[in-house]
Amino acid sequence: MFFFFVGGLQQEVRQVLKSGVSKCTYCGNSVDLVNSDKVLNLFFVPVWRWPAKDPLFHCSYCKNFSSYNYSLPPTSESPAAVAEALRCRFCDREVEADFRFCPFCGSDL
Question: Which ranges does the record mark as transmembrane (predicted)?
Answer without folding.
Answer: none
